[in-house]
Amino acid sequence: MPKDIRPQPGILDIALYQGGESSIPGLREAIKLSSNENPLGPSPRAVEAFRRAGHALHRYPSSDHAALRAAIGSVHGLDPARILCGAGSDEVIAFLCQAYSGPGDEVIHTEHGFAMYRISALAAGATPVSVPERHRTVDVGAILAACTPRTRLVFIANPANPTGTMLGPTEVARLADGLPDQALLILDGAYAEYTDIDDGAVRLATERPDVIITRTFSKIHGLGGLRIGWGYGPQAVIDVLNRLRGPFNLSTAQQDAAEAAILDRAHVDRCLAENARLRDWLTANLREIGVPCDDSHANFVLARFDSATEAEACDAHLKESGLIVRRVASYGLPHCLRITVGDESACRRVAHAIAQFKGLR
Ligand SMILES: *Cc1c(COP(=O)(O)O)cnc(C)c1O
């Protein structure tokens, strides 16, 4: 009998996630500025906690993440009962799509929005809907206009990746207020630590029944390799997500390293200060050499070129100089390159190489 083995609808529509490149063929020491990693790395206390976890690998991890949730709650002033931890915020995003959307439902993301929203929506069998942005910034009016009776989830990152732009509290509140009754708003705060602007996300997720925030240990805490993220929001939503969550979705090493990382406020402050200083320097330097970029609220800068061809040629020149940045054509920005704010020497090298490319040095 012929077999007919097929995946669920939507899954074959998923284009595989393209991560930032991490090496240049033929080059031993490339500088990687393509994945928004923390150039200072994690807190030494997180590394120590990770090492210590190696002594008890035969033990199952805590399944309720109580210690980690308590630490997150104390640092951010949140009720730990309303926090859910995942293997990266990617896993929290996937839980949200699985729990709240399926065939026939729409999941809104924006034109230049983070790729995982679309991927997770398709994985759940739902229909992703892309909404245009204005000048590389999320457009609340356009999102509200795109909402239908089928809209179940609306995802924005604030600050956004790969643009680095962000909405202020008034616009975010307007978005929450305008949502249809059956829709949840997810405010992805992967870069929230990097900005001084309070967009009101935490307050909305505390007070409203329909707003969730997500956060990650991959950026400011420098633990991208370990995969830890969390969500916070209405108790009813957190309770639903916990039903989907595998009881042992986070290893002891993940939980212990994350707890140590978030409690090391001095390390966080050092990373923030360095990022702000070098981000401002890189932005000013690029503008000076005729490469426009928006003010970034994150740990990267989006450099704009005159055309996709020029961006591609600059990327090739950077590679020859041992520098890996991120092409963002798949985010609808073929004329741009996203450059992670590295350490001081990396920032100087990338600025110098782009000036060289522009024929200025
Ligand atoms: C990096 C990033 C994340 C973090 O993903 P993790 O799975 O926690 O590593 C989430 N959202 C956006 C917009 C990001 O850029």
Please, could you describe this protein's structure?
With 361 residues, the protein is an alpha/beta fold. Helix content is 39%, strand content 16%. It has twelve helices and twelve strands. It has helices spanning 44-53, 66-76, 88-100, 115-123, 140-146, 169-178, 201-207, 235-244, 252-263, 265-288, 308-320, 344-357, and strands at residues 31-32, 83-86, 106-110, 127-131, 151-157, 184-188, 211-216, 229-232, 300-304, 323-324, 326-328, 333-340. A seven-stranded mixed β-sheet has the order 2-8-7-6-5-3-4, with helices on both faces. A three-stranded antiparallel β-sheet has the order 9-12-11. β6 (184-188), α7 and β7 (211-216) form a beta-alpha-beta unit. It is globular and about 60 Å long. The mean pLDDT is 96. Pyridoxal-5'-phosphate binds at residues 36, 88-90, 114, 157, 161, 188, 190, 216, 218-219, 224, 229. Pyridoxal-5'-phosphate binds next to α3.
Topology:
Elements: E1 31-32, H1 44-53, H2 66-76, E2 83-86, H3 88-100, E3 106-110, H4 115-123, E4 127-131, H5 140-146, E5 151-157, H6 169-178, E6 184-188, H7 201-207, E7 211-216, E8 229-232, H8 235-244, H9 252-263, H10 265-288, E9 300-304, H11 308-320, E10 323-324, E11 326-328, E12 333-340, H12 344-357
Helix pairs in contact: 1-9, 2-9, 3-4, 5-6, 10-12
The chain binds pyridoxal-5'-phosphate.
